[in-house]
Design a protein that fits this description.
The structure is a single chain. With 102 residues, the protein is an alpha+beta fold. The chain has one domain: Arc Repressor Mutant, subunit A, CATH 1.10.10.10. It is 44% helix and 14% strand. Mean pLDDT is 87; it is low at 1-8.
Length: 102
């Protein structure tokens, strides 16, 4: 691993994933990342919370193995580990991220 990258070696654990996805703010982050092809800067996802709360949400998602982050210059780029999650828990993200019927 180079100094420009962050640790992305988190194992996928269903209980950690379900805990991470239990929070509406974290589901918003995952939805935004799922809708984009390329990694995005953390600050580009609007949550309406303070920096420390935002950092906490990204840490929970990273430690659950749902996202990976890497540094590029002064930016931290985030992407969803969709392929890995879908391979380990098929259909989970689709079920969680599906629109809720009114």
């Amino acid at each position: 691993m180079t100094a420009a990258e962050l640790d992305t070696s988190y194992e996928l654990d269903l209980s950690l994933i379900l805990h991470a996805l239990s929070d509406p703010q974290r589901r918003t982050i995952v939805r935004e990342l799922a809708a984009r092809e390329e990694p995005v800067p953390c600050g580009s996802i609007e949550l309406g919370v303070g920096k420390s709360t935002r950092t906490h949400h990204f840490r929970v998602l990273r430690e659950a193995g749902l996202i990976e982050q890497r540094r590029e210059g002064t930016r931290k780029l985030t992407s969803l580990r969709r392929a890995e999650v879908d391979a380990t828990f098929p259909g989970l993200l689709d079920a969680v991220l599906a629109p809720v019927a009114a």
